Amino acid sequence: MSQGSNQWGIELNGPEADQKVWLMLLKPPFDPFIEEVKDERGDYLALRSSAFDGMMTSEEVHQAAKQLFNTLNVVMSKNADTDPVTDGAVIEFVPDGQPRKHFYLKAEGGKIRVRGGIVELMVKDAQGNVIEPAPAPSRAQLWMRAAALEPEIGSALRYLQDKPGWFELYKAYEAVKDMPNGGISGSEIKRFTQTANAGERHHPNEKIKPHKRPMELWEARSLITQWVSAAIDDILGKNPE
Q1: What is the pTM of this model?
Q2: DSSP tag of 166
């Protein structure tokens, strides 16, 4: 992250368990990362990102955060089974002073889900000493890097937010259809597109006929997620750090 982005951050809102996962998987010095802010008014977590580079006002940061959080929530749900974390106040980090919060009204629904936590593996040497792994970006941070390198990947990820329907899945497919797909067969691709087009996106007609074995929605979600994941691996492989 460049020096210019050190001015801004976004407060995290949402379930504490999910915020802790963000803290665990989005660590500095890799981008984006979560910073623990200790404030006399109360401690909280803030997202820091190079996406805020060069921005001059809190409104600019607030607008940029909307898309960033949409993408991140999909990335985190696919890699860590988290529920959505939302963007809160814009944080302006002031040299030699308390961070300033710029608040924006936002209506949010709420839900609670019980699930298991993330397991952290610990490696020890022959003497029983813990071996600290070399710093490396998490898979979530690598996915965000791929989205920054290839905007169509970011677009596809945002279409996979929450529980996408056929319209969103087809838009994600259109974003990555010219990218590697991890070995998905041509027959399965045809089954997906034919199911999506015949009855799900359009009314069947002489040109658009239903597939003899229509794809279930859960199958379509799995197929497109595999495709996007393969596209991400490809773009990262072509652009090593």
Answers
A1: 0.80
A2: H
Q: Which residues of the chain, if any, have pLDDT below 50?
A: 1-5, 107, 109-119
Q: For 26-72, write each residue's pLDDT tens digit.
A: 999 999 999 999 877 789 999 999 999 989 999 999 999 999 999 99
- Long-range contacts of residues 232-238, Cβ cutoff 8 Å, at least 24 apart: 232/142, 232/143, 232/146, 232/153, 233/180, 233/182, 234/179, 234/180, 235/146, 235/149, 235/150, 235/153, 235/179, 236/142, 236/145, 236/146, 236/149
Return the number of other C-beta atoms located less than 10 Å from residue 141's C-beta.
20
Do 45 and 12 contact (CB within 8 A), yes or no?
yes
Would you say 43 and 37 are in contact if contact means Cβ atoms under 8 Å apart? yes
User: Contact, 14 vs 67, CB < 8 A?
Assistant: no
Question: In sequence order, which ranges of the chain are alpha helices (DSSP H)?
Answer: 16-25, 58-80, 139-149, 151-159, 166-176, 186-197, 217-238
Residues whose CB is less than 8 angstroms from the CB of residue 175 and which lie 6 or more positions away in sequence, other chains included = 152, 153, 155, 156, 159
What's the rounded Cα separation, in Å, for the pair 186 and 42?
A: 55
Contact residues for 142 (Cβ-Cβ < 8 A; gap 6+): 232, 236
Six-digit token pair at 52?
A: 């805020």
Q: Tally Cβ neighbours within 10 Å of residue 241.
A: 8
* 48: nearest Cα among 113, 93, 102, 105: 93
Which residues are CB-contacts of 23 (< 8 A; sequence separation ≥ 6)? 34, 36, 45
> How far is Cα of residue 81 from the mean position of the Cα atoms in its chain?
11
Report, in this order, helix, strand and coil percent for the chain, each rounded to 5.
45, 10, 45
